[in-house]
Amino acid sequence: MPDYKLIGKNYTTTDLRAKVTGRAKYAEDFRADGMVFLKLLLSPMPHARVRRLDASAALAMPGVEG
């Protein structure tokens, strides 16, 4: 059984102030050179599969990679 020594006691963590003030950095806050983003497309129908996707409009936009 785990030892619950912190329950009911005051304690602080090293990143507490950063989290409370909104200055904490999380994985999604970091950007790398050449980083790309995606949008996952799911079928609106249960157990269905996406057979075709017309991405021509998106690919025509600046910064979009195929």
Automatic annotation (TrEMBL):
SMART domains: Ald_Xan_dh_C. InterPro entries: Ald_Oxase/Xan_DH_a/b, Ald_Oxase/Xan_DH_a/b_sf. Signal peptide: none annotated. Residues 21-65 form the Aldehyde oxidase/xanthine dehydrogenase a/b hammerhead domain. It holds the Pfam family Ald_Xan_dh_C. Coiled coil: none annotated. This is Aldehyde oxidase/xanthine dehydrogenase a/b hammerhead domain-containing protein. It comes from marine metagenome.
